[in-house]
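Support reply, case 0932

Customer input (verbatim):
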Amino acid sequence: MPPVIYADKCTGCGICYKECPLDVFRWEGPGRAPTVAYPDECWHCGACMVDCPIPGAIDIRLPLPLMILHVESPTARPSVESPEAIQVRAGGGM
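Our regenerated output:
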């Protein structure tokens, strides 16, 4: 889903247009709300929404395949071991 710009909240400052790395927006100038010209090009990076000075003026809805379910696993090993754990595992003791 491409970004949604709420024209009733947008001030037309153009920051989203300037910040979008993929030029997804079309903007006619100051005071006018940008439009999403190339919705399929959006990477859903959120730069437009994060840099917008008006809270709630832009909304990004991630497509379902981009949503990642995170579940803590009690059996998962930590991805980064402490130096002490590496030394013990290597047989160096403490």
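We compared this against your earlier run and they match. Two observations from our side: The chain has a mean pLDDT of 82. Strands lie at 4-5, 25-26, 35-36, 58-59. Please reopen the case if you see a mismatch on your end.
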